[in-house]
Amino acid sequence: MKDDRTRHGAFSWFELMTDEVDASRAFYSRLFGWELENMPMEQGDYWVVKVGGQGVGGIMQKPAQAAGAPNYWATYVSVDDVDRVADTVKELGGQVIVPPTDIPGIGRFTAFVDPHGAVLSAITYVEERQ
Q: Rounded to the nearest 5°, which phi and psi values hold at 110?
């Protein structure tokens, strides 16, 4: 993906983690007219949200480590070096809740809580991302 969304500091991806994947797909596709494309993954189906044919987000089953949490939208910010961002989060008083982790064919991400309790994810994309 070679566009402004991959620039350091740009919001780039939005992902719904839900216990109700089918109901959420129906709700959001009717609400916004989103196209949804299935991308089977090892952990289960991942539904890519597309607007005008362009992937802008995804819908997936809430991961086991989030059991008990309400359904939520995860937001990703593009960064040049996700490992450095995770280190800087700690230096600035935040808490890394998902350490830098590879997503095959997509990139590397981390999730963290800022010092005030807000959750955000950072991602470094591989060059081949579609």
A: -145, 155
